[in-house]
Design brief:
By secondary structure, the protein is α/β, with parallel strands linked by helices. The chain contains 13 helices and 9 strands. The structure holds ligand G3I.
Length: about 350
């Protein structure tokens, strides 16, 4: 017996020394804690990692119960040429999710970026644009009817000044493209949650007012919208007004809509001070946003855009380290901050 304890300690000592985290260190998992608090815990994921990196899959399936493919359901990925759909990678990801007891968020049906080459910079008549968008939404949402629990139907349609963006869909169809997209998505899968997703509402009051105005007009017209996604791409060096954020989320909740944190990450690259200080500020931001989400009844999911610093759209330089696990998949202060916020511990 003595020998066993000694041996385990020795293994743990070497494991920690080599940078491996023991399961004990990361329990309880975010997934378990989220389920206890009625909050879905999510991560943005890539097809390549799901099928090539076992340690990535381990961490994903341990800590999360929803996943968002970060590029594979965008128009650019699904639509190689007019009238043609390529669902090969998204089908594999959805099968993976089902095998691993994760729900899938569909990201995203309508965005002015990540467009296929054949659509980029094209001038479309109103009829052409409506036909393309309707076909895209109806075919995609119908294919995954009952298999995608929430869709980011429209992404980033409001400009920083609060007006609607003058993008290809606005210019060819008019502002009603947004309502149309939600109607087509609802007709194709009446049970999917339909989300409007955007960034910077938490730091730009004009943008927040623009999004609120859009939501009011949609609700007044009975457009089938269920919630709002706050992307939450934050930095450690920009001020975040926590009271204003909570008030905004509550206002959206009072409209009868859900609130979702959809793409959170926190850059540290330009932080003044040591790396340790930056990681502490980062952890505090994760804690604060989680605490607000738990306090706002309407907040139903908390998703980060990736989970390991090894795979982040922001971390090509290796300086931003924006996620809760480091590049070796070890938990960072940000992970423990999320864990303790979920446990209600200071
Ligand atoms: O799929 C090709 C691959 O075949 C090729 O080998 C490789 C070479 O560069 O490029 C791959 O595509 C890239 C794709 O990411 C997958 O890595 C695209 O060029 C690149 O533009 C794409 O970037 C994504 C970006 O959206 C644009 O779609 C990021 O991964 C993704 O994290 C980012 O996510 C957005 C959200 O959708 C909306 N909110 C902001 C967020 C960050 O920009």
């Amino acid at each position: 017996m003595q020998k066993h304890i000694w041996l385990s300690s020795l293994i743990l000592f070497f494991a920690l020394g080599m940078g491996w985290s023991s399961q004990a260190q990361v329990e309880p998992t975010l997934r378990e804690l989220g389920q206890e608090r009625g909050l879905r815990m999510g991560a943005g994921v890539s097809h390549f990692r799901l099928f090539n990196t076992p340690a990535y899959v381990d961490l994903l399936t341990t800590h999360y119960d929803i996943m968002t493919p970060t590029t594979e359901l965008k128009m650019q990925a699904l639509r190689p040429s007019p009238g043609v759909f390529d669902f090969s990678r998204s089908d594999e990801m959805i099968a993976f999710a089902q095998e691993n007891d994760l729900d899938v968020v569909g990201h995203t049906l309508v965005w002015y970026l990540s467009m296929p080459d054949w659509l980029e910079n094209r001038v479309l008549s109103r009829e052409e644009a409506i036909a393309i968008l309707e076909e895209h939404i109806t075919t995609t949402v119908s294919r995954y009817r009952g298999e995608i629990y929430a869709w980011d139907v429209v992404n980033e349609a409001v400009s920083p000044d609060g007006t609607l963006s003058q993008n290809i869909w606005y210019e060819s169809i008019g502002p009603e493209y947004i309502a149309m997209a939600f109607e087509w998505a609802h007709a194709a899968d009446p049970d999917a949650l339909l989300i409007y997703n955007d960034y910077d509402m938490e730091i730009n009051p004009d943008k927040a007012q623009g999004v609120l105005a859009l939501l009011r007009s949609m609700l007044a017209a009975d457009v089938p919208i269920d919630g709002v996604g706050f992307q939450m791409h934050l930095t450690t060096w920009e001020e975040l007004d926590l009271e204003a954020l909570q008030a905004l989320m509550e206002e959206i909740g009072d409209m009868g809509l859900q609130v979702k944190i959809t793409e959170m990450d926190v850059r540290i690259g330009e932080h003044e001070g040591t790396r340790e200080e930056a990681l502490e500020v980062q952890a505090q931001l994760y804690r604060d946003v989680m605490t607000i989400c738990l306090a706002v009844e309407a907040c139903t999911s908390f998703t980060t855009w990736g989970f390991s610093d090894a795979h982040s759209w922001l971390n090509e330089s290796g300086l931003e380290d924006p996620l809760p696990f480091d590049e070796n998949y070890n938990p960072k202060p940000a992970f423990f901050a999320l864990q303790s916020a979920l446990m209600g511990v200071e």
